[in-house]
Amino acid sequence: MICTGFPNLSFVVWRGRIVVECTGLENRKASNGLASSNLALSAKHFSGRLSKWLKGTVCKPSGMCYHKNMKFYDSQTVKKARKMRKMGLTFAEISSKLNAHEKTIARWCHNINSENKTLLVAKHKRKSIVFEAVSTVKLKIDSNQSRVLAAMLYWAEGGKYPQNTALSFCNSDPTMVIFFLKLLRTGFNLDESKFRVHLQIHDNQDKNKLFQYWSNLLDIPIEKFWKPTITSPTRKMKRMDYMGTCTVRYHDYRILLILTGIYKNISNGKVAEWPKAAHC
Q1: 0.70 surpassed by pTM
Q2: String of DSSP letters for 155-189
Q3: Helix residue spans in the chain (DSSP H)
Q4: What are phi and psi of 164, to 5 degrees?
Q5: Of 64, 82, 256, 257, which is least surrounded by CB within 10 A?
């Protein structure tokens, strides 16, 4: 969230779009005497000027502050970072050379294997912890457990009732979407014809290839896909291996209410017993 200098007016840049937030419009009037119509106009004006500022065509809007370390990097910088990582440099070393944050470098290079001995030891330790966790937690997931797990995922990433009257699960992580669908299909007797899919993709991506990719992944025919939302990447920001953001909808009001009821009752302590936390 970034301040604008106006009471009850702020904005965020989310998925490449500027969202201006006007709070308290229903109460009116604002502390400085702005009526709701005037505040809405201020938001519209500020949003337009902010868009131009981000594109570099005008000066920063007055009254706006932003984090001094907020930076954007072009594709050449990303390529340099990945090349250095392949040579065995640590994230800290690459960060120092390119003047970019370590976490940013880690995001660009997460899928690159390094021959650096120190890094290999650290990677082995991480794998050992993961292996130990998997070996100590073995579940035979039945339909009831599938419903509970699906409800937990839906609580985090699903469209909530009453804003949604159909099941709507959205994520850009293909593994999570697949897992949610597997749980849903295991926990409920579904009518596959009720599925619909909507993708949000970038204008530099191949729509047909992405349709085929998600169709094969989700086992949902392309005929069930709606027209995608196509956006332009903001300021050349790069998302490695981005395959679009997928929203899976299942048009059954009853299942939406069942999942909602499960996670609400569990969170309220009505249907679950909580043992003492185990020590790691």
Answers
A1: no
A2: HHHBPPTTT-SSEEEEES-HHHHHHHHHHHHHHS-
A3: 36-54, 75-86, 91-98, 102-108, 117-136, 143-157, 174-187, 207-218, 253-267
A4: -120, 140
A5: 257
Q: CA–CA separation, 51 vs 230, rounded Å?
A: 18
**Structural domains of the chain ordered from first start:** 2-54 (no CATH), 75-136 (1.10.10), 143-267 (no CATH)
* Residue recorded with tokens 């332009």: 232
Residues in the chain: 280
pLDDT digits (tens, 9 = 90+) for 3-53: 444 444 444 444 444 444 444 433 333 333 434 444 444 445 545 555 554
**Peptide bond just before 174 cis, omega within 30 deg:** no
Helix (H, G, I), strand (E, B) or coil at 250: strand
Report yes or no: 241 and 213 within 8 Å, Cβ to Cβ.
no
